[in-house]
Amino acid sequence: MTQAQRARIDFPSRIGVWWASETWSMPDAQEVAREIEALGFGSLFLPEVTGKECLTQSAAFLAATQRLVVGTGIANIHVRVPSAAETGARTLTALYPGRFVLGLGVSHGPLVERGLGGVYQKPLATMREYLDRMAAVPEQIEPGVGRPPRLLAALGPKMIELSGTHADGAHPYLVTPEQTRVTRDILGPEKWIVSEQAVAIGSTDDDQLRRAHAHLDVYSGLPNYRNSWLRQGFDESDLVRGGSDRLARGVVGMGSVDSAAKAVTAHLEAGADHVVLQVLGDNPMADPRPALRELAGALGLN
């Protein structure tokens, strides 16, 4: 499948970065984005939980860089109405053709109901209706731009299927390379797959495991991820708070820099078009640059 036959995303390289910068001042975060680009990474994907609004952040990162693709990983559909998501994405696409990706997700019941005061209903039906309403936005909004590239945070088979029929592909998160392969098998060759891979490098094995378990702590309490891991071959004994050591080693690249780099490229070998690596530091918004400088060399980016 050629680039012209699918939604346009002009990744400068096949490996990017996933980074939460919500506690950073935007000028400082823009400096990080510029170095990510200079190191040879092809993208910067950012989350949206209950902090900063992700489309505004995306605009700032796009303005600060020259070729870096910026994606939302993910924009929470409970934060904005469908027309706002569509028109905001069209505006960024009009200004930065080929450089913006709208990743969308249904989030999680506890986050939506406690954090946002919303109502969490059937995820698949909710997402399908949301996408249909986005598609109904008239063409005279940013005429000629067309539908911006959009990916779904898809873990289960039905949501993966929806990412192929109603979107341009999937953004799997906290999955093994084998799950990336399953996603490719469901979607076929025509759709984008941008897989996330967390990595913990440096220090001792115990410290790397500590960071991996801390990273998994919140996710291990969310049904969507628990069900996803069970489908991926883990079992109930792995679903303790923070995950078992087996789960941590299965979804987080650890060991040497080269070992962590191999965990990233394994998703490419399994069928991903692009992989975004997430550096695990002492907190979710730690500066990723020291690790990225090492990983860029191991990944052959510079």
TrEMBL record:
EC annotation from Swiss-Prot or TrEMBL: 1.-.-.-
InterPro entries recorded: F420-G6PD/mer, Lucif-like_OxRdatse_MSMEG_4141, Luciferase-like_dom, Luciferase-like_sf
Record has Oxidoreductase as a keyword: yes
Pfam family name, one: Bac_luciferase
A Gene Ontology molecular function term of the record: oxidoreductase activity
EC main group: oxidoreductase
Keyword terms of this UniProt record: Oxidoreductase
Domain of life: Bacteria
Protein name per UniProt: LLM class F420-dependent oxidoreductase
Source organism: Mycolicibacterium nivoides
Lineage of origin: Bacteria, Bacillati, Actinomycetota, Actinomycetes, Mycobacteriales
